Amino acid sequence: MPTQMTIPTIDLSPFFIPGDESGQKKAKESIAEACAQYGFFQIVNHGIPLDLMKQAIEFSKMYFNYPDEVKQECGSKEGAPLPNGYYKYPEELPDKREFLLMFPPQSPFNSLPNDPPHYRETLDEMFKYFVKTGHILEGIINDCLGFPPNFLKEYNDDRSWDFLMACRYPPASNTENNGISGHEDGNLFTMVLQEDTGGLEVLKDGDWIPLIPSEGTLGVNLGDVIQVLSNKKFKSVTHRVVRPKVRSRHSYVFFYNLQGEKWVEPLPNFTKEIGEKPKYKGFYYKDYQNLRKIEPTTHSSSAPQESFNIQHFEIC
Description:
Blueprint: E1 9-11, H1 21-37, E2 40-44, H2 50-64, H3 68-71, E3 85-88, E4 98-102, H4 119-144, H5 151-155, E5 163-169, E6 178-183, E7 189-194, E8 200-204, E9 207-210, E10 218-222, H6 224-229, E11 239-242, E12 249-256, E13 263-264, E14 283-284, H7 285-291, H8 296-299
């Protein structure tokens, strides 16, 4: 019987210890291998305090237990880059979840709850820590791909399009357990905090591999932007959420994005400098996000294969 594949877990503590070049090199090698094999890995000792993560999950459980009419007071604001605040998927859609979405703490588009008390402050802190961890991961991925030093940091210097989602998935029924259908993320990379119920799965060679949660661990997956910049050296991974039985599933998902005006295309060091043809046409990030129809009402389809994805920019 074949051995069950597991998603690698990498310790980021060397990046918080000045001068630990050996530890950093080992971690980068492990992440590079995980990105090439899975497009997904887990991290520990990433800088986000455990107590803060636990508090965020508890506040999320309290908030999503409020009546829908209370949660709907946090509606999306006009002019936001994408729907924010509270949203619940319509019953007729195959995907089943509700979420609260926020932009950076200083964003004028945020629509956040006043209750539970101190939930806003916790969300602000979570957001700031996710950004700090994102900076570290961005530098690691930059080096793993052999980009020029600080290329991603300088290219992706605007954090205004990042967003954080607190999600709740209701318990699975006897007939279906779909949380979020198989899909790829359109950003640079995504970080996921899931509680002990699990449910996140990664597609590898036709098999769905569960991402087993453990205390203090975050999941990280690459998005379409990295796939295009690297001319498909690193791939955006297909993943889904399967709802557990008996109890709800709670998670936090942080999307490390680009600013909308950024131009995305395969970089020369993955194409003409090594005699390879570009595999993708270039595009503005905002245009790609619009084409993906990221609005919750259309993000999940009864026919997921018909939804817009990065394949539409492939050069035949």
